[in-house]
Amino acid sequence: MSAIRLLVLGAVRQHGRAHGYQVRNDLEYWGAHEWSSAKPGSIYHALKQMAKQGLLLAHEIAPSTAGGPPRTEYEVTDKGTEEYFALLREALTTYDQKMDVLSAGIGFIVDLERAEVVELLRRRVRGLEAWRSSVTEYYTPEDGPESLGHIGEIMNMWVHSADAGAEWTRGLIARIEAGAYTFAGEGGDPFVGVLADGQENPYAR
Fold it and tell me: Which of 7, 39, 117, 156 is the 20 to 30 Å CA partner of 23?
């Protein structure tokens, strides 16, 4: 699974309609250009590809009175919405997800209902625990990595990674269950994670 599809679909969806520069601006605002493949070229490519696939609807907008070429605005189709939520749920659930994909999922976590998010994250913890158990059938952390020679350091790294991932996920679950953040269907004032058109981005490159 590629993080760029989830990131672009989610960014467009938050605006309702957005042009490529807005999507790029938002993703740089989130720092996604540092922790994912969301670079300008890949963002514009993803927008065009997903429009061809029917996930986004492209609107040609007339140029401004100041001149310049027409620009394209995109909005998420029903098919794109289905894809978006499927990718989001997969990002939060899959225990061996790449960090950029998991990060993208966390960025859009409030688009789901609170109870569902908790269950998806619990599935992630169960996956991490099961994977750790399968590794420790061959490697005993208590004996230290030296018991398998320097190759044991690989197993040691992955066991520690699984432990850290599970601990972090349990902490997130606890915060969500304690009432942190505003999730779908709860009303109130959700966190606004996008920039208004023309708003200066302090992290833009």
Answer: 117
pTM of the model: 0.85
The residues pairing with 18 across neighbouring beta strands, listed in sequence order, are 74
Measured distance CA(182)–CA(189) in Å, rounded: 7
Report whether 201 contacts 195 (CB < 8 A).
Answer: yes
Using a 10 angstrom Cβ sphere, with 0-12 exposed, 13-18 middle and 19 or more buried, the burial of residue 123 is middle
Report CA torsion sign: 42, 48, 51, 53: negative
| Of residues 195, 201, 180, 1, the one with CA closest to residue 88 | 1
Q: Could you tell me which residues come within 8 angstroms of residue 78 by beta carbon, excluding any fewer than 6 positions away? A: none
Query: Rounded distance, CA 83 to CA 91, Å?
Result: 12
pLDDT tens-digit profile, the chain (205 residues): 689 999 999 999 999 999 898 898 888 888 888 888 778 889 999 999 999 999 999 998 766 555 666 789 999 999 999 999 999 999 999 988 788 999 999 999 999 999 999 999 999 999 999 988 887 777 776 777 777 678 778 878 888 888 999 999 999 999 999 999 999 999 876 666 666 666 666 656 5
CA dihedral 25, 103, 37, 76 (to 10 degrees): -60
| Cα–Cα distance list, 41 to 1, 75, 97, 100 (Å) | 19, 19, 24, 17
Gap between the Cα atoms of 131 and 159, Å rounded = 9
